[in-house]
Amino acid sequence: MFYDARGVHVPSTPHPALTSVTKRISMASLKRKADNTTTSTSKKPKANASITSFFKQPAAASAESKALGATGTQTSPLSSSTNADPPIAAPKFDKGKWLEKLTEEQKELLTLEIDTLHESWLAQLKDEILSKEFLELKRFLKKEKEGGKTFYPPLEDVYSW
What we know:
161 residues, elongated
């Protein structure tokens, strides 16, 4: 005979409902373990890829959509136009011209971004890093650095994706 801490008799065989719950829980944990396996076919990121390369169409799909668009029967899924006009290329970002427009304070505050961000990222983020909020954050970080605070990650690793 078994008794619990309150002195109540506990049967030696578990209740049938508890047995089925225990079986379901153990089966569910086995299923989860099998689902957690990773496959070797997972897509690996390209080293040193630019931000704009992430948004480009795959080469095979791009060639196929160009061929269909030229006949006028079907256009590219990314195109909102029904004619076969080629897409307009985005203007090339000129880092030098952009730097000429910055004030001396902006150049000083954004030294890390200017020196470490690739031009493809800088072209996409230029408006954001010149925003009032971002510049306020950079001023705060500058003041903290001058006060001897330690930064993590180290500044050279901030934009090291």
